[in-house]
Specification:
By secondary structure, the chain is an alpha/beta fold. The protein has two domains: about 10-65, DNA polymerase, domain 1 (Orthogonal Bundle); about 70-350, Aldolase class I (TIM Barrel, Alpha-Beta Barrel). It is built from 13 helices and 14 strands. The chain has helices at about 15-25, 30-40, 55-65, 105, 145-160, 175-190, 210-215, 230-240, 240-245, 245-260, 280-290, 315-325, 345-350; strands at about 10, 65, 70-75, 85-90, 95-100, 115, 120-125, 140, 165, 200-205, 220-225, 265-270, 295-300, 330-335. The strands form three sheets. Strands 3-4-5-6-9-10-11-12-13-14 form a ten-stranded mixed sheet, covered by helices on one side. Strands 1-2 form a two-stranded parallel ribbon. Strands 7-8 form a two-stranded antiparallel sheet. Helix 1 crosses helix 2 (about 30-40), helix 7 (about 210-215) runs parallel beside helix 10 (about 245-260) and helix 11 (about 280-290) packs across helix 12 (about 315-325). The radius of gyration is 21 Å and the shape is elongated. About 45% of the residues are buried. The model is unreliable at about 1-5, about 335-345 and about 355-360 (pLDDT under 50). The structure holds iron/sulfur cluster. Iron/sulfur cluster binds near residues 124, 127, 133 and 172. Iron/sulfur cluster binds near residues 126, 131 and 171.
């Protein structure tokens, strides 16, 4: 079933709203907490299983809401590696979620940290040039139920608890801001999935106005910006969004975020040989990172079939990192897991879909 079904997804409803609807329908408001306890603590997937609720209430819930369970059509990877889940939604659209175990080097052998990379749209309109998700263009926004549903379904399929979320899957999360906000409320709330706000990272291609909106909402979520170029002429070759929100505007929005949230943000920087990995690029990156006191996460480019760019050799990566270090920028390089199963966003979906014209 899909969220297109007239019955709303139970995973899209916040407790205050559910209480209100219950009272309007003549049921006691306190039943709302009981319903969501079945949904998020006991993880049932049918209203009939909510055995402490009166039959009339279960019937009402069943008329009004549905469990729109995401259908897994492919899982790649194993328990100790990055695992990618390809899901089919009710309308046949495909999205993916990626479960990433803790790096033993960073968190120790026994860490139960599990990070889920979540999608927020089907396809993406932003056409970042390194990204497979942008190649097919944008189809639609995910509903709050489809966003929350990814966590629920991955936990059920893997038997593991997700401790951290990164909104870095398919789509630009801030272009689906309203649904993202609704999903975040449910993901963060103690009556919902209960993931701490500081364990949730929103990654954006650089939508300056929505960065400001995100700064103004109360949740202390983390912000990561896909920078990939520290000079306009370089960045706009990689990130078409830079024409709309050039670096000056983006950095001003980042400063605003940092000022209100009192937390450091991260700049993601994919290193692409001879595109953005020169020493001059590194110097420019030092300047912008210091301006907003951002941490920098460098990621050597993953080759995408159909794109001409290549990954710089390690000595070239090291020279770039040395400039950041000299510039006193906190920077890491992620020679990441998942390279072997093509972990860059959108790639699993593309292997399954017929390849269309490269849009954007
Ligand atoms: S990197 Fe993100 S914003 Fe850019 S095209 Fe890919 S999914 Fe869209």
């Amino acid at each position: 079933m899909s969220d297109a079904n007239p019955r709303e997804s139970i995973h899209a409803i916040a407790l205050p709203k559910l209480r209100e609807l219950l009272v309007e329908a003549g049921h006691p408001g306190y039943r709302g907490a009981q319903v969501l306890e079945w949904v998020y603590e006991k993880r049932v997937d049918a209203f009939e299983m909510m055995t402490n609720l009166p039959a009339g209430l279960r019937a009402w819930l069943n008329d009004r809401f549905a469990f729109h369970i995401l259908e897994p059509i492919r899982v790649q990877g194993s328990k100790d590696t990055t695992r990618k889940f390809l899901f089919r939604l009710g309308d046949g659209a495909l999205i993916e979620s990626v479960l990433i175990p803790a790096s033993p080097a960073l968190y120790g052998e026994d860490s139960d940290r599990r990070t889920l990379c979540v999608s927020t749209q089907v396809g993406c309109a932003y056409g970042c040039k390194f990204c497979a998700s942008g190649l097919d263009g944008w189809s639609r926004n995910l509903t709050p139920g489809e966003i929350v549903g990814q966590i629920i379904r991955v936990e059920a399929l893997s038997g593991e608890r997700v401790s951290n979320l990164v909104f870095m899957g398919m789509g630009e999360p801030l272009a689906n801001y309203k649904n993202l906000r609704s999903a975040l409320e449910i993901l963060n709330a103690p009556w919902g999935v209960g993931i701490g706000a500081r364990r949730i990272t929103i990654s954006t291609s650089g939508l300056a106005p929505q960065i400001r909106e995100l700064a103004e909402q109360p949740m202390q979520v983390r912000l990561a910006v896909s920078l990939h170029g520290a000079r306009d002429e370089v960045r706009q070759q990689i990130m078409p969004v830079n024409r709309k929100y050039p670096l000056s505007e983006l950095l001003a929005a980042c400063e605003y975020y940092v000022g209100l949230k009192k937390q450091r943000i991260t700049f993601e920087y994919i290193l692409i040989r001879e595109v953005n990995d020169t020493l001059e690029d590194a110097e420019a990156l030092v300047e912008v990172a210091r301006k907003v006191d951002a941490k920098v996460n460098c990621i050597p480019y993953n080759v995408v079939e159909g794109l001409a760019w290549v990954r710089p050799e390690e000595p070239r990566q090291d020279a770039f990192m040395a400039v950041l270090k000299r510039g006193k920028v906190t920077a890491t390089i992620r020679r990441e897991k998942g390279h072997d199963i093509e972990a860059a966003c959108g790639q699993l979906r593309r292997q399954t879909l017929p390849v269309q014209n490269a849009a954007n």
